[in-house]
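Example 3.2
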Amino acid sequence: MRRALAVLAMAAGVAAAAAAQAGNIRIGEINSFTGATQSGQAYRNGAELAVAEINAAGGLLGRQLELIARDDNGSSDEAVRHAQALIRTDRVDVLTGSMLSNVALAVAKTAASEKKLFVVGDALSDAITLDKGNRYTFRLRPSTYMQAAMLAEVAARLPGRRWAIVAPNYEYGQSAVSNFKLLLKERRPDVEFVAEQWPALGKMRAEAVVKVLRQARPDAIFNATFGGDLKEFAEEGSRQGLFAASTVFSMSAGEAIGDTLAQYEGAKNWVVLGYPAEQIATAEHQRFREAYLKRFSERPLLSAIFGYSTIMSIAAGIKKAGSVDSEKLVVAMRGLGVETPVGPITFRAEDQQSSMGAFVATLVCKDGRSSMNDWRYLDGMRYMPGDTYVRSRRPASAMR
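Structure, written as tokens:
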């Protein structure tokens, strides 16, 4: 009798294991859908498109992917609550998402404590993969260091040396400015920073900010604002004539500001990191763009690239690992190569940062519309910090 019961128990265990194996691979996505409606929705669309394509091709490990999305409303505390619930209640296999850097850092801390793989798709702060990096957190989008290096390379060619700064006063803005100053000074020791404005995120008092910058008479302005703050800055700066004498170098995508600037004849061309969606003719991007248009009846924004590529990166990691076990996924993700709509990328083992690059261009305004001129794609591998720099900032525990 005992032997029969043991056999039955073993059979039940095998059946339960098989049932678990046959279930969906669950990816928990935490993002700011409410506070960043357009870009947040585009990110979600990109992620959903990737899941649909993977499932249509047969899924992974004989299982389908399931995306479980939660809105953090731009709150770190809310994001952490969602992360804990996704891991403990929804039993997700992987965490992803995060547009705001402070939110990403909070979720990364939770992921590390729960020993769950977390792939950041959009947030930019260097701390995510450096000072506060951990073994379980990877990042897709080029970091603030990488993007600042791209803009500093172009900015160093300007004859002017007087610079002003405008950036949101939180983790991402502080990181962006610190890097840009460091990297521009390395190339042009003669530059000086004559004015800085640090509006609280989402609370831009554009009239006062622009007045201070205009009075400093800068030759150029480094801008790290985005969203509604960026729109207000562009409008008020144009009204006060700030851009007539100052070239703007903007970390934010051209698509977010182009048609706003195009309304003002006094606005000079901005140098931007953007997304010339209509002009990219590579086969991989054309295929992605057509698939996105067919599914959502609108053209993709840059954030859609991040959502799509993050899911594809997670899928490539699962396929390489042959498992959804976090420890095996960490090993598989280090050095992982992935094809994306903007070309191949690699997740560098040293800091778990991907080599995805960015498009730099001049924003041209004509007849009330904008376009990106003289654009080029900068391979992120060229702009990543060196090994010595990484080791000086990344915790040893994150590299084990």
